[in-house]
Amino acid sequence: MATSRGGKQRQPLLHHSPTPAAANGGGAAGRRRFIAFLAAAAALVASYHLLAPTDSSRYHALYLSLGCNATAAAHLRALTLRPHVAGTEANAAAARYVLDAFSSLSFPAHITPYSVLLSYPVHRSLSLAAARGLAARPFSLVQETYKDDPYAAAAAEVLPTYFAYSASGSVAAEVVYANYGHNEDYAYLASRGVDVAGKVALVRYGDLHCEDMVRNARAAGAAAAIVYTDAKDFGGSAPKGAKRRWFPDTRWLPPTGVQVGTLYYGNGDPTTPLWPSCAAGDDCERLSSEDLAGSEAMPGIPALPVSARDGETILKAMGGDVAPPKWQGGEGAPVYRLGPGPAVLNLTYIGNDTLATIENVFAVIQGKEEPDRYVIVGNHRDAWTFGAVDPNSGTAAMLEIGSTEWAEENMDTLASRAVAYLNVDISVFGPGGLKPRATPQLDELIKEASKMVPDPDDPSETMYDTMMRHHPPITRVAGAGTDFAAFVQHIGIPSLDMSYGRFDDYPVYHSLYDDYVWVERFGDPLFHRHVAVASVWGLIVLKLADDEIVPLNYVPYASELEVPFIHI
Ligand SMILES: *[C@@H]1O[C@H](CO)[C@@H](O)[C@H](O)[C@H]1NC(C)=O
Ligand SMILES: *[C@@H]1O[C@H](CO)[C@@H](O)[C@H](O)[C@H]1NC(C)=O
Ligand SMILES: *[C@@H]1O[C@H](CO)[C@@H](O)[C@H](O)[C@H]1NC(C)=O
Where is the PA domain positioned along the sequence (predicted)? Predict the structure, then answer.
């Protein structure tokens, strides 16, 4: 059994229920043990234990027949009534909701807490002066609620917009515009004689994660970074002659919408990189705040995300050479210039990086024949705001801390016994077919399962048909800061992650507007896409848990290894 790095024995990987009948899954059959890890999709999975193991095609069909859009909608609504950032009381309540959902289905379930370093805003201010020495105008830094917003009262609980783990500090300096914040963008600025050193870099979302953008800004010498969501990429386009409209009228991000995120450049708890954290009161080795302050994994400069409207206000105040066409905004945007200045931004950010408790919820269906082999299903539960689409987005390391710490703690056991880790972080973005990402030995299984489920948007086709039309071929799981990173990159477990639709159709990502209303109107109006994803997901689980021969096919793996690796 894994021990913490401090040498102290912790609870076993699988916490056994005191009631042996329940722990045995009530005749749940299955050869392998099946861990539903933090999963909110309990209801569909639940039907599994009602089924006889003898006739697999019959119980696969029965499983599929039990999918229910009303249940999916009800769980989503209940989980997103309040914002539930990691470490808060609201997120602990969401954990209890998931625990109760599993328990009510007679699954033995328990919560494993970890104490980890989380990061909250204490004070933010940002002001703009037309030039050094001139009067500065402060930005309100508030995302406005919308007309008839049913969550307007709960919106008061949403944390002020910020970047987790941003350095605290105050910077007043001229601003330089650096497009999407790639290293090449800074190289271009240098080639135009624009010096970024000591300046505030203004960059826009669209190509890179915020932690990459802030890292690149710092590498270029910037003293601070401001990241905004350009209307060109997140605001949608208006029909000719019409005015642009946004949520709740359309799926697009309102002008005051802000995409928040984390700047930590790693996985899991920053104080325990690559080794497990422990519960509050227990003893485990941690990096000190001095270690962290000097760590390359921390952003090292103050940074703040702002809205499209604030980004545009800053750009309007800038001088210098006109930026190249690819750096410009969309229709109706002002002409973007490179700077530096003469506009001066004054940013003050004070954050509180503090140890707080997060909870992993586990439910276990014990297998009969190989109960020491695990098929693991999971995702994260905590959200930056309401989390209706993204209960813990794939880019937000803070949100995956729980699964990372658990994976780190149980690394040896998982490495030898886990059959697969099946993650669904965002199940539905909108229309556009299933988009799986996987390690290659799962490709054939994904295809097989998706052929058994009708497409929710056009039931005359299968999920496989629309998947191959919209998203061929199956892509690979990659990327730090994702739910599955610890499982794939640290432990080497066959893993998949999948969603329905396209990320580009989800402009409210990590903003105030990622709420139930958005999902009901734009993401998945009848919740059939949620059910379809759960159906494919569950079939893959059933086959991995029950097939006589574990359905991992290494032929695609061999082919993949022959593909020249060109994308470094
Ligand atoms: C920047 O803003 C802070 C907070 O509002 C203020 O105390 C400080 O004097 C400002 N700095 C400059 C150089 O204007
Ligand atoms: C930081 O968070 C801790 C724990 O929640 C709290 O006790 C402390 O008062 C906070 N500090 C500031 C400056 O807000
Ligand atoms: C579930 O699907 C049915 C049939 O399409 C539809 O009438 C109902 O409104 C859906 N329920 C929800 C909560 O969307």
Answer: 172-260
